[in-house]
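Appendix B. Chain record.
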Amino acid sequence: PSTSTLSETECGSYTWHGTTYSTSGAYTWTGTNAAGCDSIVTLNLTITQPSTSTLSETECGSYSWHGTTYTTSGAYTWTGTNAAGCDSIVTLNLTITQPSTSTLSETECGSYTWHGTTYTTSGAYTWTGTNAAGCDSIVTLNLTITQPSTSTLSETECGSYTWHGTTYTTSGSYTWTGTNAAGCDSIVTLNLTIQSVNVSVTVQGATMTSGEAGGTYQWVKCDGSFTAISGATSQTYTPTSNGSYAVIVTGANGCADTSACVNITNVGLESLSFGAELKAYPNPTLGNVKIDLGETQHDITLTVRDALGRIVEQYQYEEIQSIDLNMPEARGVYSLTLTTQEGRSAILQIVKQ
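Structure tokens predicted for this chain:
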């Protein structure tokens, strides 16, 4: 008989003379040799095993593995050979993430600072960061840069000018800041000229004079409704009766204003050296005038003149304190001149109606 030994290494299983072995060991088989005796063969068998493993990867956009590029998430396998010579089966659990894009629109006045950069002109700008998936986050900024505006307004007004809730009474340059159509500051400069008219009134005797020269005038009564006095349109006005008067003045610059009311209490007393005690009433009169001299005069002359200065009556009185004068003359303005031997005199203006 003969004996022999066979050594084999197989992966997973080994079939020998019709028998499949899946574990390592020494196995014998008896056959017949060439001499017709037993041929005993011993098999020294080594069974090795395939291996498996798992690989997990997360990549952005695509992943190349063993020569293949993957662009979608999934489980992929690859079979190689392990150290034992068996299959090495690797499963790849692949997660493919994607970059993200977004658009940001901004409108700013003058400039805009974005991710550390200040932009002063309109345009499309990009910035790349990292999104939550770990991929690029590409943001496009559509930027509109608007600008502040300036403008100038020139106005000429009488007395005062109200602008954006503020009333100005003096000339000058004033500014106001609002918002223009672009949403930026709108800075407006007002060049303002305030014109005025002189409404001062000076009084000399019973004559009033407006302080505004070269204007147009309308003297009025301060009676609550400022009734215009017919014909009283000169710079000066002498009333025919005591009362309160004002003047509406329109200057050469077109501005109009009304003076303060002036009280006139000495109508008819053009020249007075008698003192405040001298009175003549009623004035205007329908014909009879009482002249109160204030004290007894020993020798006094009364001369009545018409508007042209002509003497129409003259009277002499002695030891008299009041004079009852009858004026039969026509309607008009008359001057009554009183003179005494002591040199005292007065001129009274009387209006006969």
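Further analysis of this model is presented in Appendix C.
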